[in-house]
Design a protein that fits this description.
C8orf32 fold, 5-stranded antiparallel β-sheet, alpha+beta, 2 domains, globular
């Protein structure tokens, strides 16, 4: 809802997310204007000041750019958006990917992949896709029936990738380079690189972002504060806190394969989950302990089954570097078989069949290549 008078400021917005097959778990967040200031209200009720203003011109920014400037392919434009996942005002850069007979194709690229929208000449969305979903505006009951039939299909099993021979002592790897066979990305081949010692510096601006409460990370909830205090009460340094939290989450939860992602509060009530639940609980507890943390996804080597499979783990900012930990596998320093991948790379791997990996390079902590 926006004000009816210039500058048409945002008054309020609401986002509801239903989770689970029966939609029995609801996460709701909102943005409210109070005494002239915009706040995000987390599902826990915590009010978080937003980093910038937001109005109707921001909401319609891309449509106005396309209508007024008639940009050509590869031209780009930056616009604000309400980021309900992070409970803040974010920015996205949209570019014209194509101009075709139907209208514009615009694309927004992020660190995990991209979102692409086909707009008609009236700037109405006809299709929208990213690496996780595809939306289509349909006008006939026949097409709609096809969509409904597809929605009832059983979930596809998670894919895994075997190696020609098992990795030797994978927990001791400090560097691993793999080359997938028959896979290319944007015209080139792919090399997957994993390292146990981080070479990713922390941007000085980002730590506060990764301390923030979000839709998925209820940092201010009293049960989270209690667990964080219990896990870190005897520690004295950020490094010791990180190690204590890794051990705590690993021992607190029992591993259970799940079809749906649980919320963090549901996870601590049930005390079980798969790697996603372990990682999201770790992120939340770390932030509650004033440690900037994030959940990352990719592939990791399952030594028991001798395959690479989808996995989630964590990165935590300490002394200016992102350090990887894996609470699911009780690793205070995630080994080099943890391959953080963008959605685009993951999609390219999933769509390539059959798929195999060639080992290009291995280095071990206590030995040479």
């Amino acid at each position: 809802m926006f004000a009816t008078e210039p500058p048409y400021q945002l008054i309020r917005a609401r986002h509801t997310q239903r989770r689970g097959r029966a939609d029995n778990e609801v996460l709701e967040a909102s943005v409210l204007r109070d005494r002239g200031t915009l706040y995000a209200v987390a599902p826990t009720g915590t009010q978080l000041p937003l980093s910038s203003e937001y109005g109707l011109a921001d909401y319609l920014n891309i449509e106005m750019w396309l209508m007024n400037d008639a940009p050509q392919p590869e031209q780009s434009h930056e616009a604000k958006h309400i980021d309900f996942e992070r409970l803040d005002i974010g920015t996205k850069t949209w570019s014209v990917f194509d101009k075709n007979a139907e209208g514009y194709v615009v694309r927004s690229v992020n660190e995990l992949g991209f979102t692409e929208i086909q707009l008609d000449h009236a700037l109405t969305a006809k299709t929208m896709k990213d690496q996780h979903f595809f939306l289509e505006r349909v006008t006939s009951e026949e097409v709609l029936s096809g969509w409904r039939r597809r929605a009832s299909f059983p979930r596809q099993p998670e894919f895994s990738i075997a190696l020609p021979e098992p990795l030797r002592n994978p927990s001791k790897l400090s560097r691993l380079v793999l080359q997938p066979s028959g896979v290319s990305l944007r015209g080139g081949g792919i090399l997957l690189v994993g390292e146990s010692v981080s070479h990713a510096k922390v941007d000085p601006i980002t730590p506060t972002t990764y301390l923030r409460e979000t839709l998925r990370h209820p940092v201010s909830h009293q049960s989270i504060k209690n667990l964080a205090n219990a896990a870190t009460q005897t520690t004295t340094t950020p490094l010791k806190q990180m190690e204590a939290l890794t051990r705590f989450v690993h021992n607190y939860l029992v591993y259970e394969d799940l079809e749906d992602v649980r919320s963090v509060l549901d996870t601590i009530e049930r005390r079980s989950g798969d790697c996603s639940e372990f990682a999201e609980l770790f992120t939340t507890l770390a932030r509650a302990s004033n440690l900037p943390a994030r959940t990352v996804v990719g592939l990791a080597y399952d030594a028991n089954n001798r395959v690479f499979a989808k996995h989630a783990w964590n990165e935590i900012a300490i002394d200016g570097w992102w350090m990887a930990v894996d609470p699911t596998w009780n690793q205070v320093r995630a080994d080099a078989t943890h391959l953080r991948l963008s959605d685009e790379t993951m999609a390219a791997l999933e769509q390539s069949s059959p798929l195999s990996f060639k080992i290009v390079e291995t280095e071990y902590v206590d030995a040479g290549s």
